[in-house]
């Protein structure tokens, strides 16, 4: 286990300010920030301490400190959805550098992700809700609980601070669960319909640009008002197109949708299947970028 894992866990367990929430899956929006910068600060402090009090044993520890700094710098380079506002409640999402080491594991409404790294092979199950097949962590798994929200309401997702160089579009999909989403894995079935997409603006800016600003308002999508009540998995993603191949950062969370709608969308796609390694690529010589996937569902 790297020192950054240790420091990040320690900072979560022993925060500088006491938590105002005792619920494992809900926290106030005032704490809606990534702990990676805090972990980096802790790593720097630890490295300085070792450097200022050297001895033979600490020479070996210095190697771990170097690893710690490298890991923290890498962690700051990408991102994931840290928390969300759903149905008027604040939910902490799955914390990839904390939750795997907690006993008991916190109950989240979001499905596990492998970390803050991207998916670059569109043929892998990882493209659905995250995963790291190359590291023997293929795909994701259901979350133990779901958040409740009314059809027609907004959901706001707060990403960790996004790097300004990683420009690209945002897309959001939903899939209706046959029962309780806490046991549902879509596999390669065509069950997903797109509810939102946002690419490049007329002024040349991208959908990801607001997420690069400290204290930003996050990303907001609207649950279709006509949607039939039931349980759904929401799949949200960002593309980073600063380099080839395109990097995709997907993640999923679970909703219990209420309301009086009666529509079940029929234009469905699968993940993997909806994208290819070719149709997600960005060509800077073209005037626009064609967002891959189906058309956005409208009521």
TrEMBL record:
Major site of localization recorded for this protein: secreted
* A Pfam family of this chain: AA9
Any idea which GO molecular function terms this record carries?
metal ion binding; monooxygenase activity
This chain belongs to which protein, by name? lytic cellulose monooxygenase (C4-dehydrogenating)
* Keywords attached to this entry: Carbohydrate metabolism, Cellulose degradation, Copper, Disulfide bond, Metal-binding, Monooxygenase, Oxidoreductase, Polysaccharide degradation, Secreted
A GO cellular component entry from the record: extracellular region
Provide the residue span(s) of the region labelled Disordered. Answer: 17-36
Q: Which cofactor does it need?
A: Cu(2+)
Give the record's GO biological process terms: cellulose catabolic process
What EC identifiers does the entry list? 1.14.99.56
Q: Which family does it belong to?
A: Belongs to the polysaccharide monooxygenase AA9 family.
- Reaction equations catalysed: [(1->4)-beta-D-glucosyl]n+m + reduced acceptor + O2 = 4-dehydro-beta-D-glucosyl-[(1->4)-beta-D-glucosyl]n-1 + [(1->4)-beta-D-glucosyl]m + acceptor + H2O
Q: Which InterPro entries match?
A: AA9, AA9_LPMO
Checking PANTHER family in the record gives: ENDOGLUCANASE IV, PUTATIVE (AFU_ORTHOLOGUE AFUA_1G12560)-RELATED
Q: Where is the protein found, in the record's own terms? A: Secreted
Task: Enumerate the Gene3D superfamilies for this protein.
Answer: 2.70.50.70
Domain Auxiliary Activity family 9 catalytic, first and last residues per copy = 78-279
- Indicate, by first and last residue, each region the UniProt record lists as having compositional bias (Low complexity): 18-36
């Amino acid at each position: 286990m790297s020192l950054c894992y240790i420091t990040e866990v320690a900072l979560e367990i022993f925060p500088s300010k006491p938590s105002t929430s005792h619920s494992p899956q809900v926290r106030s929006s005032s704490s809606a920030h990534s702990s990676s910068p805090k972990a980096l600060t802790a790593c720097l402090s630890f490295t300085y301490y070792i450097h200022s009090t050297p001895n033979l044993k600490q020479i070996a520890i210095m190697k771990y400190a170097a690893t710690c700094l490298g890991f923290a710098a890498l962690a700051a380079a990408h991102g994931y959805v840290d928390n969300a506002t759903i149905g008027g409640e604040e939910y902490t999402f799955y914390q990839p550098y904390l939750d795997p080491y907690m006993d008991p594991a916190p109950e989240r409404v979001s499905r596990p992700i492998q970390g803050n790294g991207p998916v670059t092979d569109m043929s892998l199950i990882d493209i659905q809700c995250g995963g790291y097949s190359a590291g023997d962590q293929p795909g994701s798994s259901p979350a133990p609980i779901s958040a409740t929200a009314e059809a027609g309401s907004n959901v706001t997702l707060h990403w960790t601070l996004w790097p300004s160089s990683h420009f690209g579009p945002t897309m959001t999909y939903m899939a209706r669960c046959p029962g309780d989403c806490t046991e549902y894995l879509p596999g390669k079935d065509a069950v997903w319909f797109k509810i939102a997409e946002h690419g490049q603006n007329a002024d040349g800016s991208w959908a990801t640009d607001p997420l690069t600003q400290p204290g930003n308002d996050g990303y907001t999508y609207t649950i279709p008002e006509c949607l039939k009540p039931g349980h759904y998995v929401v799949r949200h993603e960002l593309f980073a197109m600063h380099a080839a191949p395109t990097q995709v950062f997907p993640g999923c969370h679970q909703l219990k949708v209420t309301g009086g709608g009666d529509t079940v969308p029929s234009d469905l796609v699968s993940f993997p299947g909806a994208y290819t390694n070719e149709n997600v690529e960005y060509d800077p010589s073209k005037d626009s970028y064609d967002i891959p996937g189906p058309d956005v569902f409208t009521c």
